[in-house]
Specification:
The protein is mainly alpha-helical and 88 residues long. The protein contains five helices and no strands. The chain has one domain.
């Protein structure tokens, strides 16, 4: 549940960074999410001497999300879908 929550935090964390007017907002948002997941993995390893598999899946998913979103984010198909969903 923590992994799923962290993976859907991107818009919220991005808005927080944008509120304070910083640059490279999306990179900082992903870094904050990755820090949360790594903190969970570290705590799990230090207290139980093993890492739960959902933490690993969530971390791999988050690490794969940035390059995939960069690849498809500027395509015409994705932009048309985004405009359709956003009503613009």
């Amino acid at each position: 549940m923590i992994g799923g929550t962290v993976l859907i935090l991107t818009p919220a964390v991005t808005r927080i960074f944008r509120l304070f007017g910083t640059s490279l907002v999306i990179i900082k948002a992903f870094a904050a999410q990755l820090a949360i997941l790594l903190a969970c993995i570290t705590y799990d390893f230090l207290t139980r001497k093993r890492v739960q598999l959902p933490y690993v899946f969530a971390t791999v998913t988050l690490l794969a999300l940035l390059p995939v979103s960069a690849l498809i984010g500027g395509t015409r198909l994705w932009l048309s879908i985004a405009h359709w969903v956003g009503g613009a």
